[in-house]
Amino acid sequence: MEPKRSTTLRFLAEPGHVNFGGKVHGGQVMKWIDQVGYAAAAAYTGSYCVTVWVGGIHFMKPLRVGWIIEMIATVIHTGRTSLHIAVDIYGGDPRSPSMERSGHCVIVFVALDDDGKPTLVPPWTPQNPFDEALEAYAVRLMALRRGMEEEMAKTLHLGPDPSVLPPP
Ligand SMILES: CC(C)(COP(=O)(O)OP(=O)(O)OC[C@H]1O[C@@H](n2cnc3c(N)ncnc32)[C@H](O)[C@@H]1OP(=O)(O)O)[C@@H](O)C(=O)NCCC(=O)NCCS
Fold it and tell me: What is the pTM of this model?
């Protein structure tokens, strides 16, 4: 049987999820992103998975308390032990049939064996031009990330002490 590539979770945004501006708190949305990503990674691999990277979260539109929030997580690239999952976020009033896209990000998970060591994931192959474009996107993000990590490594050790200057 083919591994399950896509997982959808729906949540109801409750009054306890509100931020100081009256919309759904960004931290809550990030928790839902991680939950749907984990559910998709575990379903696809059949293994326990951990998040190693979450990036470029775009909050395109605010989500409102009382709305249904739909999170769709889809495998878009697999490595040896890692898998890249695109998460797309939609929200809408349950009284209306329409939902609007409100965010997107890509998460990288690693599958772990029973000893907590990275373990092989089932390889995923794009099936059509749309899949190919998504995989190419995941690969481009990986390259950009390497550049970002090099840049951050130069400054990570500094901490908040203003007497220690960053490298030129
Ligand atoms: C997951 C973990 C066990 C992997 O250990 P590791 O020593 O980095 O293992 P490896 O070097 O073999 O890397 C495993 C895979 O992760 C990928 N990976 C590791 N760090 C990554 C990063 N920052 N971004 C993207 N991929 C990454 C590697 O490319 C490799 O993928 P591949 O096998 O498909 O080529 C370790 O990084 C870990 O425990 N991290 C903490 C996870 C966690 O606690 N998450 C919750 C945070 S709130």
Answer: 0.91
